[in-house]
Amino acid sequence: YMKCLEDHTKTKQENIPKTLSASLVNIHLFGDYVQKAENLFPEETKTACLSTIANVKTICHKYFLSRIHTDLKPLYRKIWTQAWLADHDDVIQGLVKELENHIDNLKQLKPVCREELVGELHVEVMVEYVRRMMKRKLKLREKSKQEQTADLMCKDSQIICSVFAEAGSKEEWLPEILPKLSEILRLQDPGSLQLEIVSLVKDFPDLSEQHILAVLNLKTNLSSSDLRKIKGCLRDNRSILNAESSSSFFSKVIVKKKIL
Protein backbone atom coordinates (compact mmCIF):
# COMPACT_ATOMS: atom_id res chain seq x y z
CA TYR A 1 0.00 0.00 0.00
CA MET A 2 2.80 2.41 0.92
CA LYS A 3 4.76 1.61 -2.25
CA CYS A 4 1.68 2.07 -4.47
CA LEU A 5 0.90 5.39 -2.80
CA GLU A 6 4.48 6.58 -3.24
CA ASP A 7 4.44 5.63 -6.92
CA HIS A 8 1.09 7.38 -7.34
CA THR A 9 2.51 10.69 -6.08
CA LYS A 10 5.11 10.59 -8.86
CA THR A 11 2.46 10.61 -11.57
CA LYS A 12 0.61 13.64 -12.92
CA GLN A 13 -2.90 12.38 -12.34
CA GLU A 14 -5.42 15.04 -11.29
CA ASN A 15 -6.96 12.86 -8.58
CA ILE A 16 -3.79 12.63 -6.45
CA PRO A 17 -4.90 15.19 -3.80
CA LYS A 18 -8.22 13.37 -3.30
CA THR A 19 -6.47 10.00 -3.12
CA LEU A 20 -3.99 11.26 -0.53
CA SER A 21 -6.73 12.97 1.48
CA ALA A 22 -8.59 9.67 1.70
CA SER A 23 -5.36 7.84 2.56
CA LEU A 24 -4.66 10.21 5.46
CA VAL A 25 -8.09 9.44 6.91
CA ASN A 26 -7.55 5.69 6.45
CA ILE A 27 -4.15 5.60 8.11
CA HIS A 28 -5.38 7.80 10.97
CA LEU A 29 -8.22 5.36 11.65
CA PHE A 30 -5.92 2.36 11.32
CA GLY A 31 -3.28 3.92 13.59
CA ASP A 32 -5.91 4.73 16.20
CA TYR A 33 -7.16 1.14 16.04
CA VAL A 34 -3.67 -0.35 16.40
CA GLN A 35 -2.82 1.85 19.38
CA LYS A 36 -6.04 1.12 21.23
CA ALA A 37 -6.20 -2.61 20.51
CA GLU A 38 -4.84 -4.19 23.69
CA ASN A 39 -3.31 -7.67 23.48
CA LEU A 40 -4.49 -8.05 19.90
CA PHE A 41 -1.04 -7.83 18.27
CA PRO A 42 2.44 -8.80 19.42
CA GLU A 43 4.38 -5.68 20.43
CA GLU A 44 6.78 -5.98 17.51
CA THR A 45 3.84 -6.15 15.07
CA LYS A 46 2.25 -3.10 16.66
CA THR A 47 5.55 -1.18 16.42
CA ALA A 48 6.03 -2.18 12.79
CA CYS A 49 2.47 -1.13 11.88
CA LEU A 50 2.86 2.28 13.53
CA SER A 51 6.20 2.81 11.80
CA THR A 52 4.66 2.07 8.39
CA ILE A 53 1.72 4.36 9.18
CA ALA A 54 4.16 7.16 10.00
CA ASN A 55 5.94 6.58 6.69
CA VAL A 56 2.69 6.69 4.73
CA LYS A 57 1.73 9.93 6.49
CA THR A 58 5.13 11.40 5.58
CA ILE A 59 4.57 10.55 1.89
CA CYS A 60 1.17 12.29 1.91
CA HIS A 61 2.39 15.34 3.82
CA LYS A 62 5.46 15.71 1.62
CA TYR A 63 3.27 15.82 -1.48
CA PHE A 64 1.05 18.60 -0.14
CA LEU A 65 3.78 20.63 1.58
CA SER A 66 6.33 20.53 -1.22
CA ARG A 67 3.84 22.15 -3.57
CA ILE A 68 3.00 24.83 -1.04
CA HIS A 69 6.66 25.68 -0.48
CA THR A 70 7.27 25.85 -4.23
CA ASP A 71 4.60 28.55 -4.52
CA LEU A 72 5.93 30.37 -1.43
CA LYS A 73 9.56 30.35 -2.56
CA PRO A 74 9.48 33.74 -4.34
CA LEU A 75 8.00 35.25 -1.18
CA TYR A 76 10.53 33.55 1.10
CA ARG A 77 13.32 35.16 -0.95
CA LYS A 78 12.17 38.65 0.09
CA ILE A 79 12.41 37.93 3.84
CA TRP A 80 15.49 39.36 5.54
CA THR A 81 16.49 41.48 2.57
CA GLN A 82 16.54 45.24 2.01
CA ALA A 83 13.07 44.88 0.47
CA TRP A 84 11.84 43.36 3.74
CA LEU A 85 13.23 46.33 5.68
CA ALA A 86 11.97 48.97 3.24
CA ASP A 87 8.49 47.51 2.54
CA HIS A 88 7.99 45.24 5.50
CA ASP A 89 4.19 45.28 5.64
CA ASP A 90 3.85 44.51 1.92
CA VAL A 91 6.35 41.65 2.09
CA ILE A 92 4.89 39.96 5.15
CA GLN A 93 1.27 40.47 4.07
CA GLY A 94 2.10 38.95 0.69
CA LEU A 95 3.42 35.86 2.44
CA VAL A 96 0.43 35.71 4.78
CA LYS A 97 -2.08 36.02 1.94
CA GLU A 98 -0.47 33.16 0.04
CA LEU A 99 -0.34 31.05 3.21
CA GLU A 100 -4.02 31.67 3.90
CA ASN A 101 -4.93 30.66 0.34
CA HIS A 102 -3.04 27.38 0.64
CA ILE A 103 -4.40 26.63 4.09
CA ASP A 104 -7.91 27.30 2.79
CA ASN A 105 -7.29 24.71 0.06
CA LEU A 106 -6.63 22.11 2.77
CA LYS A 107 -10.24 22.27 3.94
CA GLN A 108 -10.86 19.14 1.87
CA LEU A 109 -9.05 17.19 4.58
CA LYS A 110 -10.74 15.76 7.64
CA PRO A 111 -10.19 18.10 10.64
CA VAL A 112 -7.80 15.77 12.50
CA CYS A 113 -5.67 15.21 9.38
CA ARG A 114 -5.76 18.89 8.48
CA GLU A 115 -4.60 19.86 11.97
CA GLU A 116 -1.52 17.65 11.71
CA LEU A 117 -0.64 18.93 8.24
CA VAL A 118 -1.14 22.58 9.23
CA GLY A 119 1.04 22.04 12.30
CA GLU A 120 3.82 20.60 10.15
CA LEU A 121 3.51 23.50 7.70
CA HIS A 122 3.72 25.91 10.66
CA VAL A 123 7.05 24.39 11.71
CA GLU A 124 8.45 24.42 8.18
CA VAL A 125 7.49 28.06 7.52
CA MET A 126 9.19 29.16 10.74
CA VAL A 127 12.25 27.08 9.86
CA GLU A 128 12.42 28.78 6.46
CA TYR A 129 12.10 32.22 8.07
CA VAL A 130 15.02 31.51 10.43
CA ARG A 131 17.05 29.99 7.61
CA ARG A 132 16.59 33.18 5.57
CA MET A 133 17.70 35.18 8.58
CA MET A 134 20.86 33.10 9.00
CA LYS A 135 21.83 33.54 5.35
CA ARG A 136 23.06 36.95 6.58
CA LYS A 137 21.93 38.99 3.58
CA LEU A 138 21.65 42.01 5.89
CA LYS A 139 24.40 43.71 7.86
CA LEU A 140 23.14 45.57 10.91
CA ARG A 141 25.86 48.03 11.83
CA GLU A 142 23.95 50.49 14.02
CA LYS A 143 22.16 49.80 17.28
CA SER A 144 19.00 51.44 15.87
CA LYS A 145 18.97 49.07 12.88
CA GLN A 146 19.39 46.06 15.15
CA GLU A 147 16.49 47.21 17.32
CA GLN A 148 14.36 47.82 14.22
CA THR A 149 14.91 44.30 12.88
CA ALA A 150 14.30 42.83 16.33
CA ASP A 151 10.93 44.60 16.43
CA LEU A 152 10.09 43.36 12.93
CA MET A 153 10.93 39.78 13.93
CA CYS A 154 8.51 39.94 16.86
CA LYS A 155 5.85 41.46 14.62
CA ASP A 156 6.35 38.76 11.98
CA SER A 157 6.14 36.04 14.62
CA GLN A 158 2.83 37.37 15.89
CA ILE A 159 1.34 37.74 12.40
CA ILE A 160 2.47 34.36 11.01
CA CYS A 161 1.70 32.36 14.14
CA SER A 162 -1.75 33.96 14.41
CA VAL A 163 -2.57 32.69 10.92
CA PHE A 164 -1.59 29.17 11.91
CA ALA A 165 -3.35 29.32 15.29
CA GLU A 166 -6.59 30.28 13.53
CA ALA A 167 -6.02 27.40 11.10
CA GLY A 168 -5.78 24.91 13.97
CA SER A 169 -2.03 24.50 14.55
CA LYS A 170 -1.28 23.12 18.01
CA GLU A 171 2.44 23.99 17.83
CA GLU A 172 2.11 26.49 20.66
CA TRP A 173 5.87 26.59 21.34
CA LEU A 174 6.74 28.11 17.96
CA PRO A 175 5.71 31.75 18.69
CA GLU A 176 8.51 32.06 21.25
CA ILE A 177 11.37 31.34 18.81
CA LEU A 178 11.59 34.61 16.88
CA PRO A 179 11.17 36.86 19.96
CA LYS A 180 13.97 34.96 21.71
CA LEU A 181 16.24 35.26 18.68
CA SER A 182 15.37 38.94 18.41
CA GLU A 183 16.86 39.55 21.85
CA ILE A 184 20.27 38.53 20.51
CA LEU A 185 19.97 41.37 18.00
CA ARG A 186 18.55 43.82 20.51
CA LEU A 187 21.09 43.37 23.33
CA GLN A 188 24.35 45.31 23.13
CA ASP A 189 26.21 44.32 26.28
CA PRO A 190 28.39 41.19 25.66
CA GLY A 191 27.67 39.87 29.15
CA SER A 192 23.91 40.12 28.65
CA LEU A 193 24.30 38.50 25.25
CA GLN A 194 26.10 35.54 26.82
CA LEU A 195 23.29 35.02 29.35
CA GLU A 196 20.61 35.28 26.66
CA ILE A 197 22.37 32.76 24.42
CA VAL A 198 22.89 30.28 27.24
CA SER A 199 19.19 30.59 28.11
CA LEU A 200 18.23 30.00 24.47
CA VAL A 201 20.43 26.90 24.21
CA LYS A 202 18.88 25.59 27.42
CA ASP A 203 15.43 25.85 25.80
CA PHE A 204 16.65 24.52 22.42
CA PRO A 205 19.62 22.15 22.85
CA ASP A 206 19.76 21.58 19.07
CA LEU A 207 20.85 25.22 18.63
CA SER A 208 24.45 24.85 17.44
CA GLU A 209 27.40 27.20 17.65
CA GLN A 210 27.09 27.76 13.89
CA HIS A 211 23.49 28.93 14.33
CA ILE A 212 24.49 31.36 17.06
CA LEU A 213 27.42 32.75 15.10
CA ALA A 214 25.19 33.20 12.05
CA VAL A 215 22.92 35.47 14.12
CA LEU A 216 25.80 37.28 15.84
CA ASN A 217 27.42 37.96 12.47
CA LEU A 218 24.43 40.12 11.61
CA LYS A 219 25.65 42.47 14.35
CA THR A 220 28.72 43.89 12.69
CA ASN A 221 29.53 46.08 15.71
CA LEU A 222 30.61 43.07 17.82
CA SER A 223 34.37 42.81 18.21
CA SER A 224 36.37 39.63 17.63
CA SER A 225 37.12 39.60 21.36
CA ASP A 226 33.40 39.73 22.20
CA LEU A 227 32.71 36.84 19.82
CA ARG A 228 35.46 34.73 21.38
CA LYS A 229 34.10 35.36 24.88
CA ILE A 230 30.57 34.44 23.82
CA LYS A 231 31.78 31.25 22.09
CA GLY A 232 33.84 30.33 25.16
CA CYS A 233 30.90 30.91 27.49
CA LEU A 234 28.67 28.76 25.29
CA ARG A 235 31.16 25.90 25.20
CA ASP A 236 31.71 26.08 28.97
CA ASN A 237 27.99 25.95 29.69
CA ARG A 238 26.88 23.54 26.95
CA SER A 239 28.02 20.47 28.92
CA ILE A 240 25.93 21.36 31.98
CA LEU A 241 22.78 22.33 30.10
CA ASN A 242 19.85 19.96 29.93
CA ALA A 243 20.18 18.14 26.60
CA GLU A 244 16.57 16.93 26.66
CA SER A 245 13.92 18.97 24.93
CA SER A 246 10.53 18.06 23.52
CA SER A 247 10.97 20.59 20.71
CA SER A 248 13.49 20.04 17.94
CA PHE A 249 13.72 23.08 15.70
CA PHE A 250 17.19 24.40 14.90
CA SER A 251 18.45 21.03 13.68
CA LYS A 252 16.06 21.62 10.75
CA VAL A 253 17.72 24.98 9.97
CA ILE A 254 20.72 24.28 7.75
CA VAL A 255 23.53 26.84 7.92
CA LYS A 256 25.44 26.14 4.71
CA LYS A 257 28.34 28.54 5.11
CA LYS A 258 30.89 27.58 7.74
CA ILE A 259 31.39 30.39 10.24
CA LEU A 260 34.57 30.51 12.28
From TrEMBL:
GO biological process: exocyst localization; exocytosis
GO CC field: exocyst
A Pfam family this chain is assigned to: Sec6
InterPro entries named among the record's database cross-references: EXOC3/Sec6, EXOC3/Sec6_C
An annotated Gene Ontology molecular function: SNARE binding
Top-rank lineage group of the source organism: Eukaryota
Family, per entry: Belongs to the SEC6 family.
UniProt-recorded name of the protein: Tumor necrosis factor alpha-induced protein 2
